[in-house]
Design a protein that fits this description.
This protein is an alpha/beta fold and 438 residues long. It has one domain: Alpha-Beta Complex (Spore Coat Polysaccharide Biosynthesis Protein SpsA, Chain A), CATH 3.90.550.10. 42% of the residues lie in helices and 14% in strands. The chain contains 14 helices and 14 strands. It has helices at residues 25-41, 73-82, 95-108, 127-137, 160-163, 180-183, 230-238, 244-254, 257-278, 293-304, 325-342, 354-371, 378-388, 416-437, and strands at residues 12-16, 21-22, 53-54, 67-68, 71-72, 88-93, 114-119, 146-150, 173-179, 202-206, 211-216, 221-223, 289-292, 308-313. The strands form 4 sheets. Strands 7-6-1-8-12 form a 5-stranded mixed β-sheet. A 5-stranded mixed β-sheet has the order 13-10-11-9-14, with helices on both faces. Helix 1 links the parallel strand 2 (21-22) and strand 3.
Length: 438
């Protein structure tokens, strides 16, 4: 275990625009379709036709390059960090990512941040290697926490509660879990208020508040890279979807017999109490894994042999990543609605870096469209991708104008889900702007 640190803030970040690749487009497409079909068959809350890369793609299907309102996803994510209190950012990505990042920063400036770029290694796209590449460019102090963030969170623009939190002083790894109840408190009474649809495979019981939380794995990681085995984080991150996280944890425990004895009383308490305690909230519940939150924190601390804690948040933008075509279309529908409602600068009303993003789009995207293959004709590209994954409709049916996918009877109009998203992000955006101004 490591000593308590003096700093209560994080000022360095590894921003990853890198992602694994399948060995062939055929395998990537089959995997994406199979997952969506399983979710459809089980009537899941969230259906995901995944955006997956493959080695033999003529155009790299890298989700961070996808355009939302004509602007790359990666620019939203980088813009979020530019308006934060971070001081240093290391970007990991491909040649195309580097080209876009340079153009973006030339257009909007670095906002006083020290920013560097490291090219991803196509032969080693593991999270472990990504963390090592990022770490090599940062001057990290002993026991200092840094933020690791995948670059597919375009509207996660309020991260100060992550960067400036008292628990930074006491822990080497903090998982900010996505709690359905906190993000969407009225989802049962008003299902359309849950404007980000996800599948919550985990359950957490919190004794201190006497609450049950439906939980989804985190997307960002405040981490002390000198105290936490990056190889373990790689395994946990890569298997965190669909409940596989627990299987990985069990395998890791079995490979470290010295820690099993320390885990026995924790697991014994879990076996004796969790199911009966859960029934106090719900007599019947389908989930892949559940645990008392404090008991889970103790178990992972033993597993990692370091100070570890979990925290919940109430910000839907933390769970709203762009993993699938459905995720991309949620944001395309949101920005489209903002433009219809407020005009061409609608983005500036739902994203605090919106004006700068629009400036970049107007000044630099015309040139990038001639240099980045995906952007030569993005509507045709995305329509083709939809068809390859056997989607029921395409987003640009006339070849150039986005038309919202209809899930309601109202023709070509916004869904209630989109309206809720617009209202929430507008309010959040204004609040962040006020904080920046003060």
């Amino acid at each position: 275990m490591n000593p308590i640190r003096s700093s209560a803030s994080i000022d360095k970040c590894i921003l990853s625009f890198s992602h694994d690749r399948y060995t062939s487009r055929k395998k990537a497409t089959a995997a994406a379709i199979a997952k969506a079909e399983r979710e459809i068959a089980s009537n899941s809350n969230g259906i995901s036709h995944l955006i997956l890369r493959s080695v033999d793609d003529k155009i790299d299907h890298l989700k961070f390059l996808f355009l939302i309102n004509g602007i790359p996803v990666m620019c939203y994510a980088l813009g979020n960090l530019l308006i934060s209190s971070l001081k240093e950012i290391v970007i990991i990505g491909s040649e195309e990512v580097e080209q876009i990042a340079i153009s973006f920063l030339e257009a909007v400036g670095t906002q006083g941040k020290k920013i560097s770029f490291v090219r991803e290694d196509p032969n080693n796209l593991s999270l472990f290697n990504t963390l090592q590449l990022g770490k090599s460019r940062l001057d990290i102090k002993l026991n200092e926490l840094v933020l690791f963030q995948p670059g597919d969170l375009p509207f996660m623009f309020d991260i100060e509660k992550i960067l400036n939190n008292s628990d930074i002083q006491n822990y080497n790894l903090i998982l900010w879990l996505n709690s359905r109840q906190m993000m969407f408190p009225d989802y049962r009474g008003n299902p359309e208020s849950e404007f980000v649809r996800r599948n919550y495979h985990y359950r957490a019981l919190c004794k201190e508040t006497n609450e049950l939380h439906e939980v989804k794995e985190p997307n960002i990681y405040p981490i002390n890279l000198s105290a936490v085995d990056a190889d373990i984080i790689d395994h946990l991150h890569s298997t965190r979807k669909d409940g596989n996280l627990i299987k990985t944890g069990i395998r890791k425990v079995l490979s470290m017999p010295s820690r099993i004895l320390k885990l026995l009383p924790i697991m014994a308490y879990h076996a004796m109490h969790f199911r009966s305690d859960l029934k106090q909230f719900r007599k019947k519940d389908k989930y892949l894994f559940g645990m008392h939150r404090d008991n889970f924190d103790r178990a992972v601390s033993v597993l990692l042999n370091t100070e570890f804690t979990t925290k919940f948040h109430s910000d839907p933008a933390f769970v709203s990543d762009v993993d699938a075509l459905e995720d991309w279309e949620d944001f395309e529908a949101l920005t489209h609605y903002a433009n219809v409602k407020l005009g061409e600068k609608g983005l500036a009303n739902i994203h605090p870096f919106g004006e700068e993003l629009l400036h970049f789009r107007n000044e630099r995207m015309p040139v990038l469209k001639t240099k980045i293959a995906m952007y030569n004709n993005f509507p045709i590209y995305i329509n083709s991708f939809y068809r390859s994954l056997k989607m029921n409709s395409v987003p640009f049916p006339n070849g150039n104008q986005y038309v919202p996918n209809q899930t309601t009877h109202k023709k070509n109009g916004p869904t209630e889900k989109t309206k809720h998203a617009f209202s929430w992000y507008s309010t959040k955006c204004n609040a962040v702007k006020v904080k920046r101004a003060s």
